[in-house]
Amino acid sequence: MSDRDVLLVCIALACMWVGGYATGRGRPVRAVVAWADWHFTTAPRRSPRFWAAAPVVVAAVCCLWLFRPRRSLRNWRAWREHDRRRALPTQTPSRLSDRRDLGDGYTEITSGGAT
């Protein structure tokens, strides 16, 4: 290697270090993903903003599945479980369904026991 090649390698390494530092401090990826998420969820599908944001969101989801597969799968399962729980019909506990409201703050117990 000549002196010129060594100088070019040193300059390239310095540029990569400065670029990596600036990227870590400024966090432009997080800002771009936040912008894309906002436009992806709020803009109508016929809007150019939606279609500009769609590839960014897809790339972010792919990166999550690629770099954090366990966390992504756990979050997805928790979200699905929460969705299932929300869809279940609510049931009144038997201790509450045995009471009948008489109005004026009085309650009558209908199953056994004193009135």
Structural overview:
- It is a single chain.
- This protein is mainly alpha-helical.
- It has a domain of 59 residues.
- Helix content is 71%, strand content 8%.
- The protein has five helices and two strands.
- Strands 1-2 form a two-stranded antiparallel ribbon.
- Strand 1 and strand 2 form a beta hairpin.
- Helix 2 packs across helix 3 and helix 3 crosses helix 4.
- The mean pLDDT is 78.
Shape: elongated
Order of H and E elements: HHHHHEE
Work out the radius of gyration: 30 Å
Strand content: 5-15%
> Taking strands numbered 1, 2, ... along the chain, how are they ordered across the largest sheet?
1-2
Number of DSSP E strands: 2
- The multimeric state of the shown protein is single chain
Describe this structure in a few short sentences.
The chain is built from 5 helices and 2 strands. The model has no long low-confidence stretch (mean pLDDT 78). The termini are far apart.
